[in-house]
Design a protein that fits this description.
Elongation Factor Tu (Ef-tu), domain 3; 18 helices; 4 domains; Rossmann fold; disordered N terminus
Length: 643
C-alpha cells in the first residue's frame, strides 16, 4: 500500500505582526516537512566542475549564510582558483587535501531546499582511484547529475560512472555539459557530446537522460535560462531537479530488518529498525523469516507516539502480541508474503580495495543487518566499462567490476537488487583489517543451493573416533619453503603411528601432483589450493584421522578460512619459524636459486609475500627446535577416548 500523498502549502508570506510572523514561520516549517525529498549525486571525470556546480546551487537557492559567505570569501583568496572571485567549489570541498589539490576525494553531502522540493546532494570524486567513494554516494541516490567538460567530451571515467550509476539502480540521469563558456556556447559541440553519450549509454537502460548546457561558474542555465544559449529550449538544472519524477517502484512485500532489540524495562520488548519496503498495520500477522515463528503486530511505536500504519523508510519499533526469539539481523515479514533465503547467489561486484580479491578467499558479508562468512566460488567474467564486453579474470583488482558466484556460511534473507535495494545490496569486509573491500548487488539466487541437501549418515564422526581410539584433528604446518614442515610432519606421523593412531599427511608437493595439478602459483591459485586442501582435511578428520598438512599457505586469510571450516577446537596451527636465509641455504629443491635468477616469478619470501601467523598454537623456532619435545606435546593432545 503506497503512502498517502501529503498536502502542500503556500510559500512563506511576509508577516505584519509578531503573531502573524510566528504563524507564517510555523506554516513554512510545516510546508518544509511535507515536501518530498530528492537525493541526487554529481559525478563525472576529474575537474568537470562538480563541486563548483553544487556550490552554485547552494548559492542560487540562498543556502549560504553570512558567516559562511565571509569564510568562503577568505578561503577563495587563499585556496581558490578564480582569482579575486568567489570559488563556489570551496563550499563543498571541505578536506584540507581537497583544497590543496583542487579535487574531490571524499563524498560530501549537502542539504538544501526550494519552495517546491527538498534535496540531499552527494558530491562524489572524479578520480578513478576514488571510484569506491562514488559508489557510496550513488547507493542511496534517485538521480545522477553526470557532468561532462565541454572541452573534453565523453571520457573513460564518464562511461565508468554512467555504468556504475545504472548498476546501483539509478534510472534518471541529468547530463550536465559544463564549461560551455569556455567553448563559446557552441551548439554543435553540445549536440555531438549528447549524441556520443546517448550511444554509449544505450545498453544501460536509463529511463530518461536530460541534457543541459551550462556553466556552473557563470551561472548559465542553473536557475534561469541563459541568454547565451538562445538555441536551448529545455529546462534549467534547478527546474529539472524540482520537477523530475524519480520515484522508485513501490514494493508490495513488507521487509523489516531488525536493527536493535529495544528493551528499556521488563514490560517493554520491541524490535527497532527501518521498514525497507511495503506496508505494516497493527493487527498484521508477522513471520520471523529465519525461524518461521509467527506473531501478531500489537503496536507500532515511534518517537512521536504510536501509529496504526508504517510505510517504507519509516523508522519504527514493532511490538508483538507474544514473546518470539528475535535478534539483530533477523528479518520480519508478513506471514502471507514470505521472503526468500539463500546461501548461494550470483552478484555483480565492484572491487574497492588495493588488496586483490581471489576466488576461495573468505570474507565477512553484510546484507541489511545480517552477517555471514562468504567466499567467491567463481569469477564468471569482468566487465569492460567502455564496451560492456565480458572478459575472463582470475582475480579482482581495484575498481574492477565483475560478475561472480558467492557462497555463504549460513542462509540469509535476500532479494534481487533490482527488486529491493536493502535485501539485494551487500558489502564484503576483510576479516583482518575490517576494511570494506567490495560492494555487491545480487542478480539472482543459485537454484542448485535449494536442490542440494546434506545427507544424514548412520555412522557419525564420533563412531569412527571411538573405533580408532582417539579424536580426529588437523595439525596445520605453515612456513617458508625449506623451513622443515614436511620433515617435522613426517617425524610426528611416525611417532603417532607407533602409538597406534590413524594418521595421514597432506603434503604440498604430493597434492599438486594429483588433486591440485591444475593450479599454478599465482596468488589466486594459491588461495584455491589451500581451500581444496582444507576441504579434504576436514573430510579426513571426519573419518577420525589425525591429519597433518605441510603447506607454505602464505596468506593469513586462507589459514583463517581453514580454521573456520575445520573448527577452532579441531585445528592446531604450527608455525615452523625458520629464517629466509636458512631456508635459502638449505634450498632442497633449488627453488630459491631459480627465484633469485628470475626464473620463478611467484616464490614466497622472494617475490611473493609470506604473512606470519599472529597467534599460532605452536611456533617451532629453527635455532632451538626440540623435535622430540614437540612430538610429545602433540601426542599429549591426542589422549585415548574414554570408553
Amino acid at each position: 500500500m503506497p503512502r498517502p500523498k501529503k498536502a502542500t502549502s503556500a510559500p512563506l508570506q511576509q508577516a505584519t505582526t509578531p503573531t502573524t510572523k510566528i504563524a507564517n514561520i510555523r506554516d513554512w516549517m510545516t510546508q518544509q516537512a511535507q515536501q518530498d525529498l530528492l537525493r541526487f549525486i554529481t559525478c563525472g571525470s576529474v575537474d568537470d566542475g562538480k563541486s563548483t556546480l553544487i556550490g552554485r546551487l547552494l548559492w542560487e537557492s540562498h543556502q549560504v549564510f553570512d558567516d559562511q559567505l565571509t569564510t568562503l570569501q577568505a578561503d577563495s583568496k587563499r585556496h581558490g582558483t578564480q582569482g579575486q572571485d568567489i570559488d563556489f567549489a570551496l563550499l563543498v570541498d571541505g578536506l584540507a587535501a581537497e583544497r590543496e589539490q583542487g579535487i574531490t576525494i571524499d563524498v560530501a553531502y549537502r542539504f538544501f531546499a526550494t519552495p517546491r522540493r527538498k534535496f540531499i546532494v552527494a558530491d562524489t570524486p572524479g578520480h578513478e582511484q576514488y571510484t569506491r567513494n562514488m559508489i557510496t554516494g550513488a547507493s542511496t541516490a534517485d538521480v545522477a547529475v553526470l557532468l561532462i567538460d565541454a572541452r573534453q567530451g565523453v571520457l573513460t571515467q564518464t562511461r565508468r560512472h554512467a555504468y556504475l550509476v545504472s548498476l546501483v539502480g539509478i534510472r534518471q540521469v541529468v547530463l550536465a555539459v559544463n564549461k560551455m563558456d569556455l567553448v563559446g556556447y557552441n551548439r554543435s559541440l553540445f549536440d555531438a557530446i549528447v549524441a556520443d553519450f546517448n550511444h554509449s549509454a544505450k545498453p544501460l537502460g536509463f529511463e530518461g537522460v536530460t541534457p543541459i548546457p551550462l556553466s556552473a561558474l557563470k551561472g548559465d542555465n542553473i536557475t534561469e535560462r541563459s541568454v547565451r544559449t538562445p538555441w536551448y529550449q529545455g529546462p534549467t538544472l534547478m527546474g529539472c531537479l524540482e520537477t523530475l519524477n524519480a520515484a522508485r517502484p513501490i514494493q508490495s512485500k513488507a521487509v523489516f530488518p531488525v536493527q536493535w532489540v529495544n528493551r528499556p524495562n521488563a514490560s517493554f520488548r520491541g524490535f527497532s529498525g527501518t521498514l525497507a519496503s511495503g506496508h505494516l498495520a497493527v493487527g498484521d500477522t508477522l513471520r520471523v523469516t529465519a525461524s518461521g515463528q509467527t506473531a501478531t503486530l500489537a503496536r507500532i511505536v515511534t518517537a512521536d507516539g504510536d501509529i496504526e500504519n508504517a510505510y517504507a523508510d519509516d523508522a519504527v519499533t514493532l511490538m508483538l502480541d507474544r514473546e518470539v526469539d528475535v535478534s539483530r539481523g533477523d528479518v520480519i515479514a508478513l506471514a502471507d508474503q514470505p521472503v526468500e533465503m539463500t546461501d548461494q547467489f550470483e552478484a555483480t561486484l565492484v572491487w574497492m580495495h588495493d588488496e586483490p580479491g581471489h576466488r576461495g578467499r573468505s570474507y565477512e558479508l553484510k546484507l541489511a543487518n545480517q552477517w555471514a562468512s562468504a567466499s567467491i566460488t567463481s569469477l564468471k567474467y569482468k566487465i569492460d566499462v567502455n564496451t560492456q564486453a565480458h572478459e575472463s579474470c582470475k582475480q579482482l583488482d581495484l575498481n574492477d567490476i565483475a560478475v561472480a558466484n558467492l557462497a555463504l556460511s549460513k542462509p540469509l534473507v535476500f532479494a534481487r537488487y533490482a527488486d529491493n535495494r536493502t535485501l539485494g545490496g551487500f558489502i564484503l569486509v576483510d576479516k583482518f583489517s575490517h576494511a570494506t573491500v567490495a560492494a555487491g548487488m545480487i542478480r539472482h539466487n543459485l537454484r542448485r543451493s535449494q536442490n542440494v541437501h546434506r545427507q544424514a549418515l548412520s555412522i557419525t564422526r564420533e563412531d569412527r573416533e571411538r573405533l580408532n581410539g582417539h579424536q580426529g584433528k588437523v595439525i596445520w604446518f605453515t612456513g617458508l619453503s625449506g623451513s622443515g614442515k614436511s620433515t617435522i610432519a613426517n617425524a610426528l606421523e611416525k611417532a603417532l603411528h607407533a602409538q597406534g593412531k590413524r594418521t595421514y599427511i597432506l603434503d604440498g608437493d604430493n597434492i599438486r601432483q594429483g588433486l591440485n595439478r591444475d593450479l599454478g602459483f599465482t596468488d589466486a591459485d594459491r588461495v584455491e589450493n589451500i581451500r581444496r586442501v582444507a576441504e579434504v582435511a576436514k573430510l579426513m578428520m571426519d573419518a577420525g584421522l589425525v591429519v597433518m598438512t605441510a603447506f607454505i599457505s602464505p596468506f593469513r586469510a586462507e589459514r583463517e578460512m581453514a580454521r573456520e571450516l575445520i573448527g577452532q577446537e579441531n585445528f592446531i596451527e604450527v608455525f615452523v619459524d625458520t629464517p629466509l636465509e636458512v631456508c635459502e641455504q638449505r634450498d632442497p629443491k633449488g627453488l630459491y636459486k631459480k627465484a633469485r635468477n628470475g626464473q620463478l616469478p611467484n616464490m614466497t619470501g622472494i617475490n611473493s609475500p609470506y604473512e606470519r601467523p599472529l597467534n599460532p598454537a605452536y611456533s617451532l623456532v629453527h635455532a632451538d627446535l626440540d623435535l622430540d619435545g614437540f612430538v610429545r606435546l602433540i601426542t599429549n593432545l591426542l589422549r585415548p577416548l574414554q570408553s
